[in-house]
Amino acid sequence: MEDQYELLKNRISHDFMQAMLRLVLAFGVFWICARIFSPFATIMLWALILAVTLYPLHLRIRTSLGWSNGLTGSLIACAGLLLLGVPIVLLTMSLIEHGSVLISEWQNGTLSITPPDESVKTWPIVGEPLYDTWLTASTNLQDLLMNHGEQVLALAKGALGGTTDIISTVGIFLGAMIIAGLMMTYGQSGEAAVGRIASAFVGAGRGREFQTLSVATIRSVATGVIGVAAIQALFLGLGYLWAEVPGAAILALIALLLGIIQLPAMLVTIPVLAWLWMSGDGSTVINSVITVYLLIAGLADNILKPVLLGRGVNVPMPVILIGALGGMVGMGLIGLFLGSVVLAVGYQLLWAWVDHDRARVETEATTTSTVNPD
Fold first, then answer.
1. Rounded Cα–Cα distance for residues 124 and 139 (Å)
2. Contact 235, 69 (CB under 8 A)
């Protein structure tokens, strides 16, 4: 009896050590793989979102034209680089150009600021201090810089960091578009591989259900929220460049932020229109044409949202807002796009898991009550 007990104890100890070694080995391999993949995680995640969103278009083009997967994916990637990359690059170049002009004028001592209008005093809360600071900057900029040197330096560092973030985001986006074209080329095998992974984690039936739900959520949020905001911001940015508005890229970025957090872009467009008519640089005809264009672009989300947001699944707007703001705080500008999509997918999967378990419990309770009516 003691020999059997000792044998059983040794067997349990051996199996426990084997399990621990396997666990440590698996964790070590996972950690090393994660460290190796981490520099590419952001661009690959963005490429995956683009590929999932554009894959129905890929299938439609391939079927109608009879092209191969590789040629169709290359066409979509090139079209995306032209349609989105060119306006983004133009806006980025405009931002860099305006920054360079300001720095050059500052170094040459020719930087001048237009005095504020008296109406600025009537603005709520910030009117009086803003007017005083603005007036001081327009009359004696040197003293203002001397008295607030640390604040100006911090502001300049923040502007430089923001510009660098914008440039890196543009580069990552253009690279993600190319990778998305490659992903769509191998879309069928990729879909099967993701299905196998999901089935291994949660079972065959639920794995396929979670995969379908994740794809639908990505397409819904990417097209109905981020897509609408990006399209509107690009149109508005081109309009700002056309009107030669100072800081057109920054205004377009603000319009993009407002669109993602579900605020109207007219909050930016109306001040731009007021500046356009008060500056007096263009003719009445040109100003009228630009005004009509900016009004149409500023209201375009009212047409695009019902068309695009109704597809797939509906995600509460607070989830989109929290994801966008949290992603921007944690990952910078690029997190503004990724955060809302990832959080929306997690939200949908959480409730799908909760509802599935509740339905299973209710089914078991109903079966038990049927078998044992007493």
1. 24
2. no
Tens of pLDDT, residue by residue, the chain (374 residues): 566 666 777 777 777 788 888 888 888 988 998 889 888 888 888 888 888 888 888 888 888 888 888 888 888 888 888 877 777 777 677 767 776 777 776 667 666 677 776 666 665 566 677 777 777 776 766 666 666 656 666 666 666 666 677 777 778 888 888 998 888 888 888 888 888 887 777 776 777 778 888 888 888 777 777 778 888 888 888 888 888 777 777 788 788 878 877 778 888 888 888 878 776 566 777 888 888 888 888 887 777 766 665 554 567 777 877 887 788 777 776 777 788 888 888 888 888 877 766 655 555 555 555 545 55
Q: How far from chain centre, in Å, is Cα 188?
A: 26
Asked if residue 163 lies in contact with residue 99, where contact means CB atoms within 8 angstroms, the answer is yes
Closest CA to 234 of 217, 214, 256, 213: 256
Angstrom CA distances, 278 to 117, 271, 275, 284, 324, stand at 11, 10, 5, 11, 35
pTM assigned to the model: 0.66
Q: Are the CB atoms for 346 and 265 separated by under 8 Å?
A: no
Amino acid occupying residue 345: V
Helices (H), 261-332: 266-279, 284-298, 301-308, 317-331
Buried b (16+ CB within 10 A) or exposed e, 321-346: bbbbbbbbeebbbbbbbbbbbbbbbe
**For the chain, what is the largest distance between any 2 Cα atoms, rounded to a whole number of angstroms?**
104
d(CA 120, CA 304): 35
Rounded distance, CA 128 to CA 360, Å? Answer: 63
Which two three-digit tokens encode residue 27?
């964790």
* Sign of CA pseudo-dihedral 86, 88, 92, 94: positive
Closest CA to 96 of 174, 173, 162, 176: 162
Buried b / exposed e across 287-303, counting CB within 10 Å, b at 16+? beebbebbeebbebbee
C-beta separation of 344 from 260 below 8 A: no
